[in-house]
């Protein structure tokens, strides 16, 4: 089973915030694949289906960002899911808004959701798609910035970025992640 974990915070207060870029991708994949992400288990909302002959689970942890690893661990244990079959999608301050960056290992880079996943899985090696949100302007606190919605001017870029991330996930279902990285890394505004 392939499993896609979108990171974010539960509740309508956080719905369209920068920190919920991972949830945005899961929601768009659910729309594309006609999956309801509404099973409440493993401290997450989960939707399952077959996509191109492959069993796929879409996962939105409901633990709040800092505890995302609890949900990932619970899913791994319950489904006997393999870590190499997981793709984590999340917001990234160090990537320009509108760009996606794919990696298969590395540190948390200050992202508390990724830090929690590393802590609960015991490894830094897992597939990830980082959604660019850029850094805040000087004087703006990071926590205020990530918990704020994207600006109106950013909306078209963000929509394209979500589409690009969904395209990368779909490609990854039928190709090695290294090949997916080569095809999609740095993708921005509809261009490779």
Structure, explained:
The chain is α/β, with parallel strands linked by helices and 192 residues long. The protein has a single domain (2-184), classed as Rossmann fold. The chain has six helices and seven strands, in the order βαβββαββαβααα. It has helices at 21-33, 68-79, 112-121, 142-146, 155-174, 177-184; strands at residues 2-6, 39-41, 44-51, 54-61, 86-92, 100-105, 125-132. The chain has a seven-stranded mixed β-sheet, with helices on both faces. The radius of gyration is 15 Å and the shape is globular. The two termini are 29 Å apart. The model has no long low-confidence stretch (mean pLDDT 95).
Write the layout of secondary structure elements.
Elements: E1 2-6, H1 21-33, E2 39-41, E3 44-51, E4 54-61, H2 68-79, E5 86-92, E6 100-105, H3 112-121, E7 125-132, H4 142-146, H5 155-174, H6 177-184
Parallel strand pairs: 1-4, 1-5, 5-7
Antiparallel strand pairs: 2-3, 3-4, 6-7
Strand order of the largest sheet: 2-3-4-1-5-7-6
| Distinct helical segment count | 6
> How would you sum up the major sheet?
7 strands, mixed
Share of residues in strands = 15-25%
Molecular shape: globular
Kindly state the number of beta strands: 7
Measured as a percent range, the helix fraction is: 25-40%
Terminal CA distance reads 29 Å
- Give the count of structural domains: 1
- Supply the CATH class: Alpha Beta
| Average pLDDT taken over every residue | 95
């Amino acid at each position: 089973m392939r499993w896609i974990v979108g990171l974010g915070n539960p509740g309508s207060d956080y719905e369209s915030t920068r920190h919920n870029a991972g949830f945005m991708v899961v929601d768009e994949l659910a729309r594309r694949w006609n999956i309801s992400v509404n099973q409440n288990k493993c401290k997450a909302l989960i939707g399952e289906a077959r996509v191109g002959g492959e069993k796929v689970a879409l996962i939105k942890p409901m633990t709040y960002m800092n505890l995302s690893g609890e949900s990932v661990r619970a899913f791994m244990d319950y489904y006997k899911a393999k870590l190499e079959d997981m793709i984590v999608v999340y917001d990234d301050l160090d990537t320009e808004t509108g760009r996606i960056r794919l990696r298969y290992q590395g540190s948390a880079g200050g992202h508390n959701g990724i830090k929690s996943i590393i802590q609960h899985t015991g490894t830094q090696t897992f597939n990830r798609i980082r959604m660019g949100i850029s850094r805040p302007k000087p004087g703006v606190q990071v926590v205020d910035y990530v918990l704020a919605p994207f600006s109106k001017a950013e909306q078209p870029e963000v929509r394209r970025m979500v589409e690009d991330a969904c395209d990368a996930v779909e490609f990854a279902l039928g190709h090695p992640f290294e090949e997916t990285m080569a095809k999609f890394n740095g993708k921005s505004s509809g261009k490779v």
